[in-house]
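tool_call predict_complex ligand=5'-deoxyadenosine
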Amino acid sequence: MPERPPPMDNALKKVFIKTYGCQMNVYDSERMRDVLGPLGYADTATPEGADLIILNTCHIREKAAEKVYSELGKIRRMKRARAELGAEMLIAVAGCVAQAEGEEIVRRAPAVDLVFGPQTYHRLPQLLARRSASGRAVVETEFPAADKFGELDSKAQPRKGVTAFLTVQEGCDKFCSFCVVPYTRGSEFSRPVAQVVEEARRMAGQGVKEFTLLGQNVNAYHGMDDRGRSLGLAGLVAELSRIEGIERLRYTTSHPRDMTDELIAAHAENPKLMPYLHLPVQSGSDTILKSMNRGHTAEFYLRLIEKFRAARPDLAVSGDFIVGFPGETDNDFESTLSLIREVGYASAFSFKYSPRPGTPAAESAKQIPEAEKSVRLQELQALVHAQQTAFNGAMVGRTLSVLLEKPGRDAGQLVGRSPYLQSVHIQAEPGLIGMIVDTHISGVGSNSLSGHYAGAV
Ligand code: 5AD
Ligand code: SF4
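tool_result ok
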């Protein structure tokens, strides 16, 4: 007879959530924890011994689905081992791969119990109940009309930490020809102003000082206010700045086409809005931008950056780039490098083009060989790396305001965040966590800065 596992200490069940991909998935995983809390699920850091495992997946690049299937293979073995002890382990696949693959996941990985997309995770309790009543896998990838965010709000658990993500907008109607987001996250949606303000106020009350407002097209935000009027992102930022306890605001990810003069002006006028802008351009070639369906030229992007810098001269810019998009010539790639030289990035994410099933660019006959993509990626990354190193190096000798976040690796050390999203190591008392302090920057490492406390701001 296999031995039964000992009864759990406080009858709590354990959930292990593995999060892939973007910051919105990080936020979504937090909200899944919120809805599972009242069901008696506590978070655990390892999959072994978990009662429920959730893979919150990403579908944006590379063999995302294949990675999930191989992970599921490992988890299936854990599930079997646990079953031999007479205990259950439920396996759930959530997020964008779940949305894209649906039933196929259960067909290929029959050990999976639940499959649900990004629009349905607020219904996790019902999905779990359906699974337990039927004993069969439950697949839920509809886009229900119900307001996911509204339902989630009542279940929120206290936040730890002094920085937090806050989703304000979701989905995308832009249909860039390489991108799966409009298919997996659905069409664009903005949360009502009052709902966002309420969530921000609650988290600020729990000690969150810095918020990063999230959306696939965050600057297309147009939430309804209490008077039935539509408020843009600049208006929302203004509202949130008035909340007591909120010291810093950021937003990501923006699309060049949705930038407004009000938002640019907010960078000049609102000291709580951090001087950091993540504005992807993907390519510096107008031919490629056109076939990507981006709806703007390289020149348009460069003029936007100019406007931002006129409003906020110390603005740091980051971007996303794709190399080896179908049809990209050496000349097109050169245009991307020259755009990068002109902008001067503080950081950038760059990727080899990866054909996503169901997107128009995946059908193109002009695919670029992998080897060529790799060469271009290396060259682009070397350029961006040099810019990033120069940007960080220029901080030495300056005084930056640093939000102290958590203990560092060494004794007596804290790690904080600069206005430009750099990690800063400083010798300071743990009691200062949550404070924003002036810091003299004296050193620069590969990924972080170090400095000395120079006083509270
Ligand atoms: N291939 C490579 N990179 C992609 N991205 C989105 N879709 C693809 C794809 N099919 C990149 C873009 C986007 C970032 C989030 O991921 O640069 O801005
Ligand atoms: Fe994808 Fe383009 Fe929408 Fe960004 S704007 S999410 S890249 S389709």
